[in-house]
Amino acid sequence: MKIVTKISITELKKMADKMDGYLVKADVDIAKKIIIIDMPMHFEGEQELLSQGSEQKNLWGVNLFPAKFNTDDFIMYESMINLKPRQNTSMTVLSAKIKSVIKETIEEVVHE
Q1: CA–CA separation, 19 vs 68, rounded Å?
Q2: pLDDT over 90 (residue 18)
Q3: 25 secondary structure, DSSP code
């Protein structure tokens, strides 16, 4: 597990090999615009970000599919950490605005 500011698709593919070969778990702090990746469970990344001063309301879990880079299917906005009774009533991120910020943050970090 590590916080990344830049990462290549090649690196993500290597990480995906550890997770059945097709996905990488990531948590995004939409306020700080930081991403933590490569953990077995989103909860682990969430706890690390919280220990570094992130706020629960700003943390969102996603799955990245390196083989689908540059498609609409690259990011799956679904994780147990996304269940926030006052903010999001689903494992899937429901807010279009939050999805947009997550996507923009990931696009700034992930490259070819």
Answers
A1: 15
A2: no
A3: E
Torsion of CA 47, 26, 104, 86, to 10 degrees: -50
Tell me the pLDDT tens digit for each residue of 69-83. Answer: 999 999 999 999 999
Amino acid occupying residue 67: A
Q: CA 36, CA 58: separation in Å to the nearest integer?
A: 13
Model pTM score = 0.95
DSSP string, 67-99: GGTTSTTSEE-B-GGG-BTTTB-SSB---HHHH
Q: Output the six-digit token pair for 8.
A: 């290549």
